[in-house]
């Protein structure tokens, strides 16, 4: 009986060992990197001539790319789905960067979903058109490199793309009108700080877009009137281009926008009153354009505003009393325009205001005492206007140049008022 028991126990143990080995073998086989993907990744590595901190040091022929290569993830079939070797900056440590180019071989990673080669600083050359074959891609992050040439036309085929970050490179060329027509899933389009030119392409179908940032390029033409279709947009940044024409009324349909910056362009016409519908707007920048007309009184309805920058335009009329409703406003500038009338007494309600610049206009009358004594006010400039009277006593010290150019103003920090 003992012999039978021992034999049975031995058989069971052998069976367990066999099953364990079989499971281990199956798992290993499932996770093992596909040969095509391994070859593609090693070809990418071969195009990198310098890797400052060894971001690719774990990538070699003798190890499995799915389980042992940093920055690489695979699916259950051993196909690469993630390639993330972004650079970084760590206090007290050398910055991570790479010198080299992006190998077209990455276009063979046909199951790739996520590609991040951002902040590598010295990664140069063109973006390979072969990346447009990767139909499963949901994110392309190639920002803060030295990439040049156009955005590949093949990217039009990336229908699953959710995020496209190509900012802070040397990209040039134009973007065709219908470039984004198949990318209806795109939620973040960030291509700022490049040298891209031409008209803004059609974007009316990008109904899931929450961030559109094309600032600091060479885009020209007008803002598309269909901009209002982007109902989910939270941030719109068109700063520093060559965009002309008027601000479309449809911009008021961006009901969720919190950041709106159109500064440093060649926009003309007036500020549309439809902005009054942007009830979540926090930052509103229109400086350095050629805008005319008055500041809409309805701006006073935008009580979430913290920053309003309108300087260097040709705005006329009076400062609206309704600006006093913006009680959480921190920064307001309307300098170098053609504004007239008095500084509204309602500004005394701007208890959170830190910066107020109304210089180089045609403002007249006295400086309201309660405005210059706002508790949070740190910077105050009303120079080169037509203000008159005695500068009210004020607790905070403002330099004399904040008041110069007003021949009718007197008293500290300007010379004392003349007695009759």
UniProtKB/TrEMBL annotation:
Recorded topology in the membrane: Single-pass membrane protein
Presence of keyword Lyase: no
GO CC, any one term: membrane
GO terms classed as biological process: anatomical structure morphogenesis; plant organ development
Keywords recorded for this protein, A-Z: Leucine-rich repeat, Membrane, Repeat, Signal, Transmembrane, Transmembrane helix
Signal sequence extent: 1-28
SMART domains: LRR_TYP (SM00369)
Predominant location category: membrane
Record localization: Membrane
PANTHER family assigned: LEUCINE-RICH REPEAT SERINE/THREONINE-PROTEIN KINASE 1, OS02G0609900 PROTEIN
UniProt name for this protein: Leucine-rich repeat-containing N-terminal plant-type domain-containing protein
Species this protein is from: Papaver nudicaule (Iceland poppy)
């Amino acid at each position: 009986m003992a012999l039978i028991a021992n034999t049975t126990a031995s058989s069971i143990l052998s069976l367990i060992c066999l099953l364990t080995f079989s499971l281990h073998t199956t798992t290993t086989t499932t996770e093992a990197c596909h040969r095509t993907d391994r070859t593609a990744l090693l070809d990418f590595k071969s195009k990198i001539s310098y890797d400052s901190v060894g971001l690719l040091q774990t990538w070699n022929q003798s190890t499995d790319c799915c389980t042992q290569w940093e920055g690489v993830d695979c699916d259950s079939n051993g196909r690469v789905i993630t390639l993330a070797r972004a650079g970084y900056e760590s206090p007290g440590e050398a910055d991570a960067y790479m010198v080299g180019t992006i190998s077209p071989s990455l276009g063979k990673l046909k199951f790739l979903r996520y590609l991040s080669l951002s902040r590598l600083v010295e990664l140069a050359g063109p973006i390979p058109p072969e990346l447009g074959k990767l139909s499963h891609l949901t994110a392309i992050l190639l920002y803060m490199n030295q990439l040049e040439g156009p955005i590949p036309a093949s990217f039009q085929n990336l229908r699953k793309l959710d995020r496209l970050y190509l900012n802070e490179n040397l990209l040039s060329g134009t973007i065709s009108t219908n470039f984004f027509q198949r990318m209806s899933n795109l939620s973040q389009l960030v291509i700022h700080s490049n040298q891209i030119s031409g008209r803004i392409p059609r974007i009316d179908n990008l109904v899931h877009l929450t961030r559109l940032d094309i600032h600091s390029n060479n885009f020209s033409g007008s803002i598309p009137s269909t901009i209002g279709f982007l109902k989910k947009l939270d941030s719109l940044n068109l700063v520093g281009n060559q965009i002309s024409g008027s601000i479309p009324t449809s911009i008021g349909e961006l009901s969720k926008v919190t950041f709106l910056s159109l500064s440093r362009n060649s926009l003309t016409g007036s500020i549309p009153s439809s902005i009054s519908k942007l009830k979540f707007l926090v930052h509103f920048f229109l400086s350095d354009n050629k805008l005319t007309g008055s500041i809409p009184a309805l701006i006073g309805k935008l009580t979430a505003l913290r920053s309003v920058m309108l300087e260097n335009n040709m705005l006329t009329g009076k400062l609206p009393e309704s600006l006093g409703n913006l009680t959480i406003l921190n920064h307001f500038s309307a300098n170098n325009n053609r504004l007239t009338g008095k500084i509204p007494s309602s500004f005394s309600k701007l208890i959170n205001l830190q910066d107020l610049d109304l210089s180089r206009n045609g403002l007249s009358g006295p400086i309201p005492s309660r405005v210059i004594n706002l508790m949070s006010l740190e910077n105050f400039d009303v120079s080169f206007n037509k203000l008159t009277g005695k500068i009210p006593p004020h607790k905070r010290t403002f330099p004399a140049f904040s008041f110069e150019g007003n021949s009718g103003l007197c008293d500290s920090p300007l010379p004392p008022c003349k007695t009759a």
